Amino acid sequence: MLTTASRHFDQDMARACALRQHAHTIAADPLGSDVRRAAWMMAVAAADAYFCDAYADVISRSLRAKGLEPSVPIPDRLARLKVPVVAVIRPASGGWRWRMAARELIEEESVLSLEKVRQLFGHFFRDGHKIVNQDTIATWLTHPSARVRCFGITATEYRAMTLHQQAGARKGALEQFETRFEAIFQRRHDCIHNCDRPKVALQPISDGQASKAIEDVGFLVNRVNDELLSQFPVYLEGLGFSVATRNQVLQ
Predict the structure, then answer these.
(1) Which portions of the chain are predicted below pLDDT 70?
(2) What is the DSSP letter of 28?
(3) Contacts by 203-209 with C-beta closer than 8 Å and gap 24+?
(4) What is the pTM of this model?
(5) Do the Cβ atoms of 51 and 42 come closer than 8 Å?
(6) How do the domains of the chain map onto residue ranges?
(7) Closest C-alpha among 47, 229, 52 to residue 124
(8) Cα–Cα distance, 198 to 187 (Å, whole number)
(9) Of the candidates 78, 68, 94, 124, the residue with the CA atom closest to the CA atom of residue 244
(10) What residues contact residue 107 under an 8 Å CB cut-off, 6+ apart?
(11) CB atoms within 10 A of CB 89
C-alpha cells in the first residue's frame, strides 16, 4: 500500500535536493537563487503528486474491497463517487482499473493546502483520530524529526506541561504548522505565477530557506504516509470487510 506514491515522492524529493546542491556551484545571482527556487517548487510539486497518488491508492483499494464483498455497506462519500465510464469498461484487471478510475477523479485537483489534505483523507480515519487536527497533532510535534519552526514548541517542552497546558499547546502548534505550510505553498505559487515577485520586487532566497522548506515538506508527507498506513486498515475493518478481503486489497 502506498508503495508507488512513496517511491515517486522519494525520487522527486531527491531531485529537489540535487537542485539545491547544484545551486552551490553557481556563484552568480540571480541564477543561483533561481536554482534554489526550482528546488523549492520541485519539493512542493512532489508533495502535490504524492497526495494525488495516495488518494487514488486508498480510493481504489476501497472500491476493490467493495467489489470483493458487495454486501458490505460503504459510506455515502464513496457511494457517490462519479467514476468515469471508461474506467469501468476498460480491459484491465480489477485493481488496476479502480486505480486508474481514482486517479482520473483527482487528476485536475491541486492538493496544496492542509485543509485540502484533511478534506481528501479525513474520511479514511476513524472518529477521534482525524488527520492534522488538535487531537492528533501531538504525535507529530513529538516526532524525532519535528522542528520548532513548524510547531513553535519542542517535544521536551510539551511533555513537561500539565494536561491543561498541553491542550493549549496543541492548539498553538497546529496554528503554527498551518502558518508554516501556508507560507511554503504560497512561495511556490509566487515562483510559478509571478517569478517570485509577489509585490514587484524579487524575493531573496537563501540556501537555508530552501533547505528548511524541502525538509518540512518531507516531514509533512512522511507523517501523512505513516498515518495512512496505520489507519486505513482500521478504516476497512470498521466498515465491516473481512480479514481475507482486507489482506487482499492491502497487498
Answers:
(1) 81-109
(2) S
(3) 204/33, 205/33, 205/36, 205/37, 205/40, 206/36, 207/20, 207/23, 207/24, 207/36, 209/36
(4) 0.90
(5) no
(6) 3-250
(7) 229
(8) 9
(9) 68
(10) 52
(11) 9
Alpha carbons 216 and 149: distance in angstroms, whole number = 9
Identify residue 20 by its one-letter amino acid code: R
- Rounded CA-CA distance 245/111 in Å is 30
Distances from the Cα of 218 to the Cα of 28, 188, 211, 212, angstroms: 29, 15, 11, 10
Report the pLDDT value the prediction gives residue 99, as an integer from 0 to 100: 63
Cα 176 from Cα 64, distance rounded (Å): 38
For residue 125, report the phi and psi dihedrals to the nearest 5 degrees: -120, 145
Determine phi and psi for 94, rounding to 5 degrees. Answer: -55, -50
pLDDT at position 97, please?
62
Tens-digit pLDDT profile for residues 150-209 = 999 999 999 999 999 999 999 999 999 999 999 999 999 999 999 999 988 999 999 999
Q: How far apart are CA 72 and CA 167, in angstroms?
A: 38
Count other C-beta atoms under 10 Å from residue 181's C-beta. Answer: 22
| pLDDT at residue 19, as a whole number | 98
Choose among 55, 67, 72, 54: nearest CA to 237: 72
Q: Note the pLDDT of residue 139.
A: 94
- Separation CA 183–CA 133 (nearest Å): 19
Q: If you search the block for the grid coordinates 521536551, which residue do you land on?
A: 156
Q: What was the pLDDT predicted at 93?
A: 54
- The predicted pLDDT at position 241 comes to 96
DSSP letter string, 59-128: HHHHHHHHHH-TTS---HHHHT----HHHHHSSS-HHHHHHHHHHHHHTT----SHHHHHHHHGGGS-TT
Cα separation, 89 vs 64, in Å, equals: 15
